Amino acid sequence: MIPAGRAPGDAGLKRWSAVPDAAGIKVLAYHWVDPEPGQKLRQWGVTPAAFEAQMTALAEGAYQVLSLEEVLQVVHGERPSSPKAVALTFDDGYRSLLDHALPVLERFGFRATFFLVSDRVGGTNAWDARHGDAPRSLMSWDEAAGLLARGMEIGAHSRTHPFLPDLPERELEDEIRRSKETIEDRLGCSVRFFSYPHGLIVERCRHSVMAAGYAGACSSQPGRNEPGTDPFVLRRTEITCHDTVRSFAFKVRTGFGVRKWAGTRIRDWFSRRSPVAREVSL
Q: Which residues make Cβ contacts (< 8 Å) with residue 217, sequence separation at least 6?
């Protein structure tokens, strides 16, 4: 929440300078932006006010917002990697993004990638029904086409949002390949990026994504994307309803939440000092 009398972003990235910007591109992952973030699933939502403050902080901090295509160029060593660069992604294709995220993105001239669940377009997030929150509407094909017309990118997020590692091989391949084909057929665009549902990935999922003809894929593993990062396991940092302006700034600078960042630093320190610790970490 932004304190009274303080402009969005005023306490943002410029003031949070204790931790420097780490090398590599930080890809930020959102789900819904909505005045009602939910109950059991509220972690995955942010309010419109919080989202506006976060985008304002990026703009005031002079961060460059890249497309995933540009992130891919970085990991392939075809483009310089700036520590003050991020990419923006939205999983599932919620209709609320059209009202509460798209106008803010356009105001700042930020591009983003929206990952669609191809067989659920125009429906609801039925895969979350077991949690008990009210269903959320997903954008239609016409609305997705409108995003493309306004300069946004569309990616694939499977056909039905299953737990991919649990599927037999044929079903796994079908979820990944047909999602790409359906979106391309309906929107007349090339779909080059995949986002793993539930953030779950094992090697055969990665292999199926490669075989389906994608150029890259987003995981839910936090961190930074640098030359040599696996393009089919691009690192992403989840932005949640719990993020304050400070914790958002920390994620943008490091690619991690505070706890995971501290854990990686401790492991790195031990691995440098102890051959035994280094063997254990492997």
A: 193, 194, 195, 196, 201, 206, 209, 231, 232, 233, 234
Could you tell me if 19 and 264 are in contact, meaning their C-beta atoms sit under 8 angstroms apart? no
Strand, coil or helix: 276: helix
Kindly state the helix (H) or strand (E) to which residue 115 belongs, with its residue range.
strand 113-116
- The span from the CA of 158 to the CA of 115, in Å, is 9
Per residue in 229-281, pLDDT (tens digit) is 999 999 999 999 999 989 999 999 999 986 654 555 445 544 555 554 444 43
3-class secondary structure, 156: strand
Q: Percentages helix, strand, coil for the chain, rounded to the nearest 5?
A: 45, 15, 40
The strand pairing partners of 89, in sequence order, are 29, 113
Element (H, E) at 28: strand 26-30
Rounded Cα distance, 210 and 217, in Å: 9
| Domains assigned to the chain | 26-257 (3.20.20.370)
DSSP secondary structure string, 113-145? EEEE-GGGTTSB-GGGGGG-PPP-BB--HHHHH
Residue 164 in tokens:
């991919």
Q: Single out the residue of 212, 226, 134, 216 nearest to residue 174, CA to CA.
A: 212
Considering only CA atoms, give the Rg of the chain: 19
Instruction: Encode pLDDT of 83-93 as tens digits.
Output: 999 999 999 99
